[in-house]
């Protein structure tokens, strides 16, 4: 029987050491199990850790925009009754109605389908639905564009918008169906939020 000294255990390759540990566990040799495990722990501690991938400027921007959109959503929820319960009560008789959570489950802006499908760099939004009408406020950045080229959109039924345009006329939706037929585009969030406020006043009236 081999005398497994600490030096002999330390000289084993990783695979041989793991095999020895497995054999010791099978035979319930507690002392050998403990020394093999200690050697494995020591080797794991010496292994270089993978450096965390640095956050990119784009991801930082997306995260910041998601937080700002969610903040607008919370402000609107304090001003209007945007609860799911009220949305359901006001949508009685609408076949297949599903209330929209204003923000995502993480409390940030929701991830848009165009970004999820890889068509665009950023598509983040907040939204509210009542009856057949859906209104949303979001930030949009096409692929391979500088961050400075992002735009904010309010999308809603044309009848609720002042000087609204067809959504496909103001941005490339890659053939994806949109939540409503009208849209407004803005360079800054403050102006977009003001337009979203006006739309919410109409849908929540």
Topology:
Elements: H1 6-10, H2 14-27, H3 30-46, H4 57-79, H5 84-89, E1 110-111, H6 113-116, E2 120-130, E3 133-142, E4 151-156, E5 165-166, H7 167-170, E6 182-186, H8 189-203
Antiparallel strand pairs: 1-2, 2-3, 3-4, 4-6, 5-6
Helix pairs in contact: 2-3
Task: Give a structural overview.
This protein is of the alpha+beta class. The chain is built from eight helices and six strands. It has helices spanning 6-10, 14-27, 30-46, 57-79, 84-89, 113-116, 167-170, 189-203, and strands at residues 110-111, 120-130, 133-142, 151-156, 165-166, 182-186. It has a six-stranded antiparallel β-sheet. Strand 2 (120-130) and strand 3 (133-142) form a beta hairpin. Helix 2 packs antiparallel against helix 3. It is elongated. The model has no long low-confidence stretch (mean pLDDT 91).
Tell me the major beta sheet: 6 strands, antiparallel
Total helical elements: 8
Helix content: 40-55%
| Largest beta sheet: strand ordering | 1-2-3-4-6-5
- What percent strand? 15-25%
Q: What average pLDDT do the residues reach?
A: 91
Query: Oligomeric state of the chains?
Result: single chain
Order of helices and strands: HHHHHEHEEEEHEH
So what's the overall shape? elongated
SS elements, strand count: 6
């Amino acid at each position: 029987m081999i005398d497994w000294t600490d030096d002999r255990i330390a000289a084993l390759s990783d695979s041989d050491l793991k095999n020895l540990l497995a054999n010791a566990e099978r035979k319930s040799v507690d002392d050998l199990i403990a020394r093999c495990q200690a050697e494995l722990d020591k080797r794991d501690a010496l292994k270089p850790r993978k450096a965390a991938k640095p956050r990119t400027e784009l991801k930082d921007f997306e995260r910041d925009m998601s937080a700002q959109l969610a903040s607008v959503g919370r402000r609107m929820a304090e001003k209007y009754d945007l609860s799911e319960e009220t949305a359901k009560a006001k949508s009685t008789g609408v076949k297949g109605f599903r209330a929209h959570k204003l923000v995502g489950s993480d409390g940030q802006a929701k991830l848009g389908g165009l970004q999820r499908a890889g068509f665009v760099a950023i598509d983040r939004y907040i939204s509210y639905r009542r009856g057949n009408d859906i209104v949303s406020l979001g930030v949009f950045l096409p692929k391979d564009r500088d961050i400075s080229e992002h735009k904010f959109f309010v999308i809603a039924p044309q009848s609720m918008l002042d000087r609204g345009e067809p959504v496909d006329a103001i941005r490339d939706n890659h053939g994806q169906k949109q939540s409503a037929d009208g849209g407004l585009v803005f360079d800054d969030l403050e102006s977009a939020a003001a337009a979203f406020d006006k739309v919410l006043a109409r849908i929540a009236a």
